[in-house]
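Cross-posting from the chemistry board since nobody answered there.

I work mostly on the small-molecule side, so proteins are not my area. We synthesized flavin-adenine dinucleotide and want a rough idea of how it might sit in this target. Sequence and SMILES are below. Is it possible to get a predicted 3D structure of the two together?
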Amino acid sequence: MTQSLPGQRPVRDRGFAGRAGLPVVVVGAGPYGLSVAAHLRAAGVPVRIFGQVMGSWRHAMATGMFLKSTPDAVDLSTPEPGGRLADFRRLHGEPELTELTPIPCEVFVRYGTWFQKRHVGDVDPARVVAVDRAPSGGGFLVRLDDGRELRSAAVVVATGLNGLAHVPGELGRLAPEGPGAGALVSHTSHHTDLSPFADRRVAVVGGGQSALESAALLHEAGADVRVLVRAPRVRWGMRPQSARSWAERVARPASPLGTGWVLAAVCTGPAAVRRLPAPARMLLFRRALGPSGGWWLRDRVEGVVPVRTSCRVVRADTDGSGVRLELAVAGRSAVLDVDHVLAATGYRLDLDAMTFLTPGVRGAPARVPGSNAPRLSAGFESSVPGLHFTGSLAAPAFGPILRFVAGTEFAAARVARHLARSLAAR
Ligand SMILES: Cc1cc2nc3c(=O)[nH]c(=O)nc-3n(C[C@H](O)[C@H](O)[C@H](O)COP(=O)(O)OP(=O)(O)OC[C@H]3O[C@@H](n4cnc5c(N)ncnc54)[C@H](O)[C@@H]3O)c2cc1C
């Protein structure tokens, strides 16, 4: 059941024997899982990687969506040269993408799949359904959705935001069986196709990129859309300037997450961010990047889709087929009747929601104070020996760059170096 694709470069484990030769298991084959696996394989560490290649980008984003990041901020990481998005485009005879070309999700999926073939090798598409401590001898017991089980020396959790979608309680009560595409309320991650909402009245709750891009796509599909934003105004990214003066570059240095000193600092120094006192780190994590829409999306929303700002959903009720929303809009009460509510209300980094980790495993790691995310060592290891976390779950420890593909370079090299050393020492 391995995903060995034609044209794949053979990747060999180079004689490393960890805990009695047991592999490291990487759970998840998105940007972080693929990058970590590429570094582990290059370091000669035996590794098994599970999950669908670029699964979230195939199944948790609506058709027609674009990345908010610029092309130079979405390279996956490998210690070998030649794995950048620009390399993929050049090899396939596709024109180079510039800061002014939003990247379609479909291009990013093709890039990730190419990266996997070239730098990672076999990926097993099975889903990991349980990670438990091995009953003896240390390490972990990993169970897959097809019933197979294997022992591993260490586990790297790279499951992104899967299972962490957040729907506020006042909306969640509209769907006693759980939110979803067929219920009265759903989360943006439930949809790959928004066209079934043509001719329906949809309230989109949220003011970030997911809310604004979903609203544009719904409108373009023929839905009657309203966006409800808690903040007093919608924030939009700035169109990148091709030539910036020296003074502008000093005043607002560039970084993969945008311009400004705070962003440049958190991108350059995730290791330093980890050493900050926890309250300062949590402040950075919450405040460094507030919700905003990509500059290229503005024309598809402003003056096109009705947006209510300073607007909070106070109560949501159903009459069976539709939804009545009671709103507080700039201190005044209002009512909105719709057919469906789309919650673009983000994700909660909650270790307890990661049900594929058995209760004994997910309950054990020490948390970053003020969060339910794991405290991590400089090598991304939690307080449970051998259990590592990357991507968004590592953001409360290392800062906001870990929420983005741009963090793969830092994370993958660190995780691989740490695992190669610690397993070789056993
Ligand atoms: C709508 C949206 C737009 C975004 N746009 C950007 C952007 O423009 N730029 C950017 O840098 N970031 C963006 N992000 C953030 C983005 O999710 C991350 O940057 C990136 O995908 C993180 O990679 P990852 O590998 O951690 O997670 P993911 O890409 O989510 O990959 C996780 C993988 O784990 C797999 N998986 C989950 N559970 C299991 C299991 N139990 N067993 C096996 N496999 C499992 C999934 O199938 C998936 O393949 C966006 C997020 C969203 C929701």
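Reply from a structural biologist on the board:
Welcome over. Reading the output above for you: Residues 27-33, 50-52, 55-56, 61, 67-69, 74, 127-128, 158-162, 210, 356, 391, 404-406 surround flavin-adenine dinucleotide (CB under 6 Å). Residues 1-18 have pLDDT under 50 and may be disordered. Happy to explain the token format if needed.
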